[in-house]
Design a protein that fits this description.
Length: 122
């Protein structure tokens, strides 16, 4: 502990960080943050707590990006995109087939009327 002015108890550190005192003491024992035990109480610095929180945020963001861009997720996106595009073109094909040429329908109606002896007047 470099500077005794900045030393805080784990009770204060838990209020700053939101972590439980037991977790903070285990971090000190594992040497993930600097601190020590004096008598029966654990102490660390506010700077160490803030550095640890900052490192955790960076670490969490890296994992969040990795999870978001995982190979399984990307392959699923491509599969769904392919299915969507395929269904879109199938629907477009049937829509065009249904409404392909309305003049053909009119011509067939006129030709059908000639079969019954109705003459077109021109």
């Amino acid at each position: 502990m470099e500077n005794l002015k900045k030393v805080i108890s784990l009770k204060q550190a838990s209020k700053i960080s939101g972590y439980h005192q037991d977790y903070l003491s285990s971090l000190i024992r594992r040497e993930e943050i600097k601190g020590g035990k004096v008598g029966g109480s654990w102490f660390t610095t506010e700077e160490e707590i803030k550095n640890y929180i900052f490192k955790q945020k960076i670490h969490h963001k890296k994992w969040a990006i990795r999870d978001f861009l995982s190979s399984k997720r990307i392959s699923n996106i491509f599969i769904y995109a392919f299915i969507f595009v395929a269904l879109f073109f199938i629907g477009l094909h049937f829509y065009n087939k249904k409404n392909s040429n309305p003049t053909e329908a009119v011509n067939t109606k006129l030709s059908d009327s000639n079969e019954f002896g109705i003459m077109n007047e021109e």
